[in-house]
Every structure is written in C-alpha cells, then in structure tokens.
Amino acid sequence: IGNSLSEFAKLGAKAEEEALVLYRKIIEAAKALGDVETWKMFEKIYSQEEQHLFKFQEYVNMKDEPEDAEAQPVSEWRKIFTDDYFALLNRAVAAEISAIIQYTNQHEKASLLALREKVSPLEVVTESNKAKVISDLLKKIFMVEMEHLEKISERIYLLEGECTVTPDPIPQVGETADDFVKLDHEAENIAIVLYRQIIAEALKRGDTTTRRMFEDIVLQEEEHYWAFDDFLR
Description:
Number of domains: 2
CATH class of the largest domain: Mainly Alpha
Oligomer: single chain
Radius of gyration: 22 Å
C-alpha cells in the first residue's frame, strides 16, 4: 500500500502499467478471435486506465513532508488501540472485501442467468425472473458493502493502524441464483456475529466512535440478511 504520497503514486502507476500490459493482450486476443464486444469494452477500459496512469505519474516525483525527528508520546486515550484491536477490526475489513468480490461476481453471473432462464410467457413479457431480481438486489448490496469497507478502513487509518488487503473468508460464487442466496445469507450471518463482537469490544474499551459506526453497519447487514432470507422461505 505504501506510507507516503509519493509511494502511493509510484505503486498506483506500477499497478496501472501492469493493467495496461494485460489489457493490451486481451484486446489483441479478442481481435484475433473476432470477439468485437470484448475488444471494444477493453479498449474503453484501456483508455480509462491510461488516464489513471498519467494522473499517478504527475505525483511520482513529489517530495514528501519530512517526518518528525522526535516521536510524540502516545496520548492516554489512544492506548486502547492495541494490535489485537486492530486485528479484530481487520477481520471486518477482510469480510467486507470478501463480500464485495462475492456479491459483485454473483450479480454479473445472475444477470447472465436472467437472460438465459426465462421459462414462462410472463417472464418473457416482463423481462424479469428470479435471477434478475437477485441480480438487482446484489448490486444494491455490494454498493453498500463498498461503503462499509471505506468507513472501516478510514477509521483504522485515522487511528494510525494498517488495513489488510486480503479477503477472508475466500469468496464463494456458486452456480445458480439459489446458490447465491444461500451463500450470501451465511456470509451476512458471519458478518453480523463478527460485528457484534467488535461492538462489544469497542464498548469495553470505551471506543465510542467505532462502536457507533459498527452499530450503524450491523443494522444494514441485518437488512441484507433478511433480504436473502426471504428467498429461502
């Protein structure tokens, strides 16, 4: 991730350069196969990534502010933010990353299933079926999960901790709309249990801000749980 603005820029530029090399290969492969839709899609993505690269390159030579030579003593109130506490908060980060990957892939897969699995005249006329409903639901939910990830990560960095970038548990996509619902129902259950643990620990330590943040988050996770639960009844 890096620890300074110049490092962020250099790492960002490197990531964009690697993406451009990969996407150029995909474009050439799509051209060779006559896959025009994929070819055009990645040409558009390539142009956007190129703009990102140029923007990062503007900052790679930035001079970072010198760090204070003398370390400041830790304030009394900040002593509650220990390594084991950050480890607990990072379990939430890992869970959110996992959910975002899982739900995003399921949304796209369900969207495709929605096109292929219309079996009744009503589904054809309304252009909707179970897979379409679940696909739309997943899109709304993974956008909320992205907001959760941003809030939790922001809190950790504000407290001068470090965030994980690894999903845990490993995302599971499934094959059918019913699979998606069952997997996501369980994922929300796991998240709710974890976030209640974090709320309890934050209360114990007197970390009011983190506690209130997770109380808001867990309310939304419970809404997601019940949304998936409706399909399992």
